[in-house]
Amino acid sequence: MKASESKIRVRYAETDKMGFVYHANYYIWFEVSRADFIRISGMTYKDMESQGIGMPVISTDCVYHTAAHYDDLLTIKASIEELTPVRIKFKYQVFRDEDNKSIAEGHTEHVFVRTADGRPVNLKKKHTALYELLCEFSRKEEI
Question: Is the pLDDT at 142 greater than 50, yes or no?
């Protein structure tokens, strides 16, 4: 399975009074990593939208293993965990670069919709090339 790696340096504004990264920031980082993943597949999210396809989030989760702090350099890995013609589920792993410690892991699930009206769309039927590209990036790599 192919994955993207995004680097994030924790900004002071992303921490709370205790000095930990505020939990909601992980979802912003997931979005950055998801956009980077789409970019390495050969398109951008903006390209998808110009084709009339959106991907609103329908579910999320995040498990926090240890705290991240101001100025930590983090790597967020994103990959496709599940793909159907109407839904896609991304998996994220967050590591601190200094010690390669697992900070958090999570998922976001999205439905493919027409941007014109927000109605679900079967990507396999309506945007075959896009669906096949995503399929290619969701396959497990040969070892």
Answer: no
Q: What's the rounded Cα separation, in Å, for the pair 47 and 38?
A: 10
Distance (Å, whole) CA 114 – CA 129: 16
Average pLDDT over residues 82-96: 97
3-state SS assignment for residue 73: strand
Give the tens place of pLDDT for each residue, 51-61: 999 999 999 99
pTM of full prediction above 0.85:
yes
Compute the average pLDDT of residues 88-117: 97
Domains of the chain: 3-138 (3.10.129.10)
| Residue 61: alpha-carbon gap to chain centroid | 12
pLDDT of residue 116: 94
Cβ neighbors of 57 (< 8 A, separation 6 or more) are: 108, 109, 110
Instruction: Return the structure tokens found at 74.
Output: 């983090």
Distance CA(104)–CA(70), nearest Å, equals 16
Q: How far apart are CA 108 and CA 95, in angstroms?
A: 18
Q: In what order do the strands lie in the sheet with 101-111?
A: 3-9, 73-83, 87-96, 101-111, 57-64
Q: How many CB atoms lie within 10 A of CB 24?
A: 9
